Amino acid sequence: MTATTNVLVALKNILDRNSCRLTPLFRSNGSANTAGDSLEYFIKDMFCTGGILHSIEEDKNKIYDKYLSWKGNSTNFPDFIVRGGVGVEPKKMNGKGNASLSLNSSFPKAYIYPDTQNIPPQNLIDEETLWNKKNIVYAVGNLDKESDKLIRLWFAYGNTFIADERIYNGLKSKIKETIENLTSSEFVPSKEFGRIKRVDPLGNTNLRLRGMWELAHPEAIFQQFLTLTDIPDGATKVNLIIPEDDFLQLDDKPDLSQYINDGKLIVHKELIPNPNNNLENISVYLYETYTD
Questions:
Q1: Tally of structural domains, the chain
Q2: Which domain holds residue 108?
Q3: Please, is 288 exposed, middle or buried when counting C-beta atoms within 10 Å of its C-beta (0-12, 13-18, 19+)?
Q4: Using an 8 Å Cβ cutoff, are 196 and 179 in contact?
Q5: Structure confidence at residue 186 (pLDDT)
Q6: Is there a domain that residue 269 lies in?
Q7: Which stretches of 82-189 are DSSP H helices?
Q8: Are residues 140 and 67 in the same domain?
Q9: Share of residues in the chain with pLDDT > 70 (%)
Q10: Do 204 and 230 belong together in one domain?
Q11: In whole angstroms, what is the distance from residue 69 CA to residue 73 CA?
């Protein structure tokens, strides 16, 4: 199935808009959204052409329904899924720093599968065909809270800097085995990580174990490959990194030549370390641009 939209469409919509200022979104009861919601809706608007024209949540959802098979909620991963395409997970950061992204109890994901933990139930994902694997794109936005404008924005395919699930699940298994060998108490797996039951002699106390995963900021990981440094003061840096193999599979590649010819957009191929084998490289396309 052909994807209804993709990350290049989102990039073009950002360049055409020429702004990464987050705007309020209002619900039917008149309440406004939070800053974190603003980033999520901004990213959805860029993937879903026309969404930015509306400020009422109900009106936006009518646009999103054309493009998205999952519009998201507060408990499942990712934040939204493109029909026939990628899953997208926005992550808001405050200020200019390259601090690690807090993922809480969910380890980072290069892909999602139908049985991946925390993805929405399959009957709630509006896909026309069965799917076995989807790419994940992390949309990392550093926000200037005083102006409600992004300082920088990254679209990073998860498979450019995140290992396979087996790496993280393997570590979890080793931790579980270690804990079981340290205590005679009962270890019970849970969605968080696990629970040790009956810690005390009378069995009145349980210990909850929760993983707190962090992921390095794409800016820190890919800094050495960036070449666009001369941008106007106050502009928003925008970067996109996508493996060449995934780029070639995109059906819709919008024309970005206007911005390339104007010198506002630089596109170059790079070899970066394979997240699953640091002795190998993978070929990627790196897009560098900015908005006012």
A1: 2
A2: 7-161+216-291
A3: buried
A4: yes
A5: 81
A6: yes
A7: 165-182
A8: yes
A9: 97
A10: no
A11: 13
